[in-house]
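Internal tracking record. Fields below are filled automatically when a chain is submitted to the structure queue. Please do not edit lines marked as system-generated. If the sequence contains nonstandard residues, flag them in the REMARKS field before resubmitting.
Queue: standard
Priority: normal
Entity type: single polypeptide chain
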Amino acid sequence: MTHSLAHICILTRDLEATSTFYCQALGMKRKFDFFKDGNLYGFYLEMSDGNYIEAFRDDAVGDRVSGPFLHLCLETDDIEASRQQLMAAGVAVSEIKKGCDNTFQIWFKDPNGLDIELHQYTAQSSQRTGADCIVDW
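SYSTEM-GENERATED OUTPUT FOLLOWS
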């Protein structure tokens, strides 16, 4: 019935800061824009073919922009290069650690305060092996 995730939608007070962050710091491309009453209202960001983040302006976004949405996790094939790219763009990034799922990860925030986790899978990653994890946090 379903076979893939179409997109994740985020809200932002600042569309341009959000576009700059996701396009420059994370290398995504702005695919298309949404307009409302003649003004820019949002856009689609393309991570890779068929993988999108949708962003809409919402001036009433609260301090915890995620609501029940805890975080966004993206995948990379070179976590160290990704970390360096983020730092070069002025983003505060955690150290690289290997999680209980045997996957390398870093953490940072987008301009709206949304937590983002970046993963680099290993051959032993539970996402590849199906092995259960013992949570250590």
